[in-house]
Specification:
Elements lengths: L2 H34 L4 H7 L1 H31 L5
Helix pairs in contact: 1-3
Amino acid sequence: MSRRSQILFLTMCVAFSICIFGLIGGMAYDLFDVFAHHRSLEFVLGNSVEFYKSLGAIGILGFALFLAFLFSAVSSKHKGVDPK
C-alpha cells in the first residue's frame, strides 16, 4: 500500500469512527435526557437535529475518503507499486 493510500485509509477510519461513536453517544444522551429529565422525545430529537446533521456530514466525508482510498489503491496497483 502506498503512503498516500495509508494516509487516506487512516483519515477514512477516523472519520467513520467519529461518526459511529458520535451517533451512539448522541442516541445514549437523548435516551438519558428523555428518561432522566422526563422530557418529551419529540422535544429532545428536535433539539439534536443539528448534531445529527453534522454527524451525517462526517459520514459522507468518510465515504468520500473511502472512494478516494479505493481509487488510490487501484491506481497504485496498476502502476506496479509494491503492496506491503
